[in-house]
Model the fold of this input.
Amino acid sequence: MTRENKFSLSLIIFIILLQGPGLKVEGQTNDSTLSIKFFTKENIGVGIGLGYFKTDIIKGYQVRIKNDEISYSINTINGIIFSQRTGLGIGLGAEPWKDGFFFPVFLHLFYDLEPKENTFYGAISAGYSFGKRYSTVFYESGTGGFMFNLGIGYRTKISKRVNFEYEVFYNFQAIKSNYSNHVDSVHVSQIDYTVPYHFAGFRLGINFH
Done:
């Protein structure tokens, strides 16, 4: 087993070990009860690449490549719910691509449209993805960077402390890479740049609280 595969396996095991049911803490104030809920969210999803990105320059013309990536994601998020409808947590994930593998670490914020078990919600995640995009005949390899995710979904109650979630999302992933400027058959230079990857997808999740 290669070093990269060992690291990937270790991280996935670590994510699994983070799973667990949420807790609830209640404290009595002078005129009201303060309720803080801890939640754990586990989800899986798939994203389809959108649009095009630029790569090599050949005799003054810059080539554009279609984003045909497919990404799969497994995430675990742990945090607190306050105001009965707003949650804030920290997430870890494993995200294999068709031509890459990444490990996102991010902050996650969600807001319920209504303060009840069955409701629509919105969610935002932002952080950094560690990993590598593999090289192909069309572009060079690259490393991870800033990531941003925006989702809209519906949460439905399964049991007293378990909810199921359906969500559509948009995901942005920056990749640090380089391309070649082919001035002619002899003069070629390398230029560093950031590749913007855009995805749209769907995910399913379980929320413990």
Remarks:
- The helical segments are 3-17.
- The chain has one domain: 3-208.
- The CA atoms of residues 117 and 157 lie 6 Å apart.
- The chain has one helix and twelve strands.
